[in-house]
Amino acid sequence: MSDQAFQHYQHAHCESGVTANLLRHEGIDISEPMAFGIGAGLFFGHLPFLKIAGIPGTTYRIWPGAIFKRVAQRLDIKIQTQKFSDPAKGMRALDDALAAGKPTGMLGSVFYLPYLPEAFRFHFNAHNYVAYGKQGDQYLISDPIIEEPALIAPADLIKSRFAKGTPEPKGFMYNIISTPKTLDLAKAIEQGIKQTCFFMLSPPVPWFGNKAIFLLADKIKDYPKKLEPRKAALYLGNIIRMQEEIGTGGAGFRYLFAAFLQEAGTLLKRDDLLQFSTRLTKIGDDWRNFAYHAARQMKDRKSDLVSYDELSDLLKKCGQQELELFREMKKMKW
Amino acid sequence: MNVDEVPQDQRNFKEGEKLKKLMYAVDKDGKYTGVNSAGWEAENFATKQAWDDIDEELARIEAQVLAGELSPIPYYMQKNLMDVALLAKYMNKWEWQIKRHFKPSVFNDLEPAILDEYARLFNITTDKLTHFGQDKKENHQ
Fold it and tell me: Could you tell me which residues come within 8 angstroms of residue B127 by beta carbon, excluding any fewer than 6 positions away?
């Protein structure tokens, strides 16, 4: 098989990165921001009751698996997905796909990927990477978040693909079966933007979409009253990590989506999209400003009410600006 | 964020300096482009804090194991960043069964097969699991 043929490109985010890399291999030259936008990857959610290691969950993106699936649907690309209860079968299916020359996307846990620095290896089970060949019994891995391809031993790959916890990847793997002769990018962009607006503006519950930014802002205001300083610092730290740690491209995917809006605006020759992009970049800067001040507050660990109030206000500012942005974007004529 | 504002604050813990992630920033013509970043002070601090919390807890558990109050299971559970629920899933047992194994008296009577399973999961030898602290230097690596 021709493992030379697969080109690894580093990207910000694992799923949109894998999507772009797999599509490029099929001759479809698509950028990561384009994949992220068409897949309507941008989102916000805060779940005070869903605690991971004792800390409430916060997300800046749509749930795992959605981006690849939506991009494939919107660009009329046929894909095959498989899940396994038996690890041996899951590995055999991977070997078969690789023997047939098909680079294969997989879902797995970050914890069992020795090629990643220890600093980032937590039990996060929704990481995406591609296997594109073998060297001896080791697998050649293209992991979009790192600069170069890596090698992994079969035992480690099995642990990652069949990790336990929430969610369980169950050896989930995906391949591209066929691609269309022509791509209707304009239509796909429109669908991605409309869906992003819908997910940001329409959820009727407080935990998802734009509303959840205000929910989190209210919660942060209460941190010094309800939590001991150490816990409050860990809660804040988790928000910063979800927003800025590996995989978001900065400002909790806001820059990534702004890059998509810019590319879409240039392609479709639409000034409104270019302006939305500029606005979202500025909003992204405000998210970074929030993270910067949150980190300073963590360092002090003082339950000084004023700064938590200020953090809450910084967040509300992001929420308010995004609310206006997505409301206007929703009204776009196509 | 402009290209020249992309932070390059190195993470100097747990091999963190090995990764230069990709970020998106705007160049002088206003065009988005990918830029590698060594890290950012705010984010490094948050990650470091999460690790410090884990390592502090690990040190507390280690002291309890050495004092004979706990078996080595909770130590290696913490070292592998697991909680009881996750460990129970990996061991295919109930949470209460795992918690029983935290008692030194129960642990000392565990069947070799179960000890082997724990050791495999924690990626250590069974001998190391059952001879906690006798190899102090290695434990601290």
Answer: none
